[in-house]
Amino acid sequence: MQPSPKELGRNIDQQRSKAIQFLRLHRGPRTLVLPNVWDVSSARMVEDAGFPALATTSAGVAYTLGYPDGQKISRQEMLSVVARIAGAVKVPVTADVEAGYGDRPEDAAFTARGVIQAGAVGLNLEDGREDADNPLVDLSLQLEKIAAIREEAADSDIPIVLNARTDVYLNQVGDPEKRYDVAVRRAVAYKDAGADCIFIPGLRDADTIARSVAALKVPVNILAGPGFPSILELEKLGVARVSLGSAPMRATLGLMRRIAEELKAAGTYVALEGAPSHAEVNRMMTDRAS
Amino acid sequence: MQPSPKELGRNIDQQRSKAIQFLRLHRGPRTLVLPNVWDVSSARMVEDAGFPALATTSAGVAYTLGYPDGQKISRQEMLSVVARIAGAVKVPVTADVEAGYGDRPEDAAFTARGVIQAGAVGLNLEDGREDADNPLVDLSLQLEKIAAIREEAADSDIPIVLNARTDVYLNQVGDPEKRYDVAVRRAVAYKDAGADCIFIPGLRDADTIARSVAALKVPVNILAGPGFPSILELEKLGVARVSLGSAPMRATLGLMRRIAEELKAAGTYVALEGAPSHAEVNRMMTDRAS
């Protein structure tokens, strides 16, 4: 059933090197910045801007295909986009695969296998649930999922970078005073289960970020954007990795809205000014297409 | 082999009504403006902005999937995106299917069948070729392609709106002094062969536009953008339909570049400001997802 790596055009040695190279980017000296991408052209644009690795945004990918965020898209559709992106760039690609598309550890492992087969070298696994009464996956189950992914990566001989995300802050779980302790307890457990990086979206306060980084002793990923400390400030706080989630993709949707509204209201084209030319984008898309 | 309309979830009567409604939008009183879209979220954004119909950009779709413009993408990949878009909006959708993905009239007919099966109600067919010595498809062959599409539409009982494009101006074919006559001769022949609208990209001069509209006595589509007459001016010139090609999609790529470059140079997030929120885009993508 499963196509072989050769059929997929993957080079296992090259993929392994990319995974190692991607993990190394979490160890400094600079903060790894990942402006998340959602299709091949956004990926090419970010790669061309000189970023050493790419991360996908699951929400952004879902939107382009007609779904809201939150695992409404199928695993297969998500991984198809990851494969297109990973096959079209030279730098390492990490995939946002939400909560792994299934409740069981074997679902997470199956998703990890798909990520590897897609040519990516990292993945995000989140612990948030869309259930107000029970907003986080049970810790023990989440640890089993992480262990299952680690095992799958070992079996595949690709040391994928596992970015374990806790949604304690993002989902505003429980008593605000207790969130830090809950997040750190989960993060330490995720690290011990095999996570390479801990992602705590929703964390924005510089003191709490610094305290988390010091407590965890593992690379920490912060979700940034307008209203957040700058990259330089986050770097000074010891943040290993900064990503932007779906914000870049949503910003482009906002531009599409401005273009459409200007056309409707004024019948002019100001919002289109400065777009890269047809010839330039064609060149960008041709260069490495083979 | 071919799934039935029912399997595809298409409602033939509804699709026929949409085709008629779309054609009617070419008959005034206002100019039909089509800010071209390339995926479901851009389509939803334009529909939500109140536009009564949507047109895809073949270049934009190709870029998102990793191809340069110009029929490097396969017919099937292009039509899959058209089907996703047409299935996700209520307004009529017209598909840019380049030169029909094949040199023969039967290729054009097969593509038209695919457009109809995808749920779209219109298509663009261009006569440009990527051959400097022979930059236009032979007129007689192009007329056979148009007739074959018309026949396919009749067989399918969906009166798709055929937008026949001549690339005389866009590809700067031959002596500039003779372009007008070549374009009008082709356009009249396309109309007589069954085209509902004539698309002359590359035409930007107000006098020549007015002259073409007067000569053709059929709805004329002008490609607009920065440097072109405004929608109101084009309306006064009698232009029935205005589209923007890949410019909106390229503008969003330009924004992605500004976001990435700002992150790299300054480590700040100004280019992300004003993006619609995660909650807002989720709502937009949920509303009509069923």
Summarize the helices and strands and which ones pair or pack.
The structure is a homodimer of 290-residue chains.
Chain A: H1 12-24, E1 32-34, H2 40-48, E2 54-55, H3 58-65, H4 75-86, E3 93-96, H5 105-117, E4 122-126, H6 139-156, E5 161-165, H7 176-193, E6 197-199, H8 206-216, E7 220-223, H9 231-236, E8 241-243, H10 247-265, H11 278-287
Parallel strand pairs in A: 1-8, 2-3, 3-4, 4-5, 5-6, 6-7, 7-8
Helix pairs in contact in A: 4-5, 5-6, 6-7, 7-8
Key attributes of the depicted protein:
homodimer, 290 residues, alpha/beta, TIM Barrel, 8-stranded parallel β-sheet, 47% helix
- The CATH superfamily of chain A is known as Phosphoenolpyruvate-binding domains
Mean pLDDT of chain A, rounded to whole units? 95
Describe the largest sheet of chain A: 8 strands, parallel
Structural class of chain A: alpha/beta
Order of adjacent strands in the largest pleated sheet of chain A = 1-8-7-6-5-4-3-2
Percentage beta strand of chain A: 5-15%
SSE topology string of chain A: HEHEHHEHEHEHEHEHEHH
Distance between the termini of chain A: 27 Å
Helix residue percentage of chain A: 40-55%
Principal-axes shape call of chain A: globular
Oligomer: homodimer
Which architecture of chain A would the CATH scheme give at its second level?
Alpha-Beta Barrel
Number of E-state strands of chain A: 8
According to CATH, what is the topology of chain A? TIM Barrel
What is the CA-atom radius of gyration of chain A, in angstroms?
A: 19 Å
CATH class of chain A: Alpha Beta
**Total count of helical runs of at least 4 residues of chain A:** 11
State the domain count of chain A. Answer: 1
User: Uncertain spans of chain A, ≥5 residues at pLDDT below 50?
Assistant: none
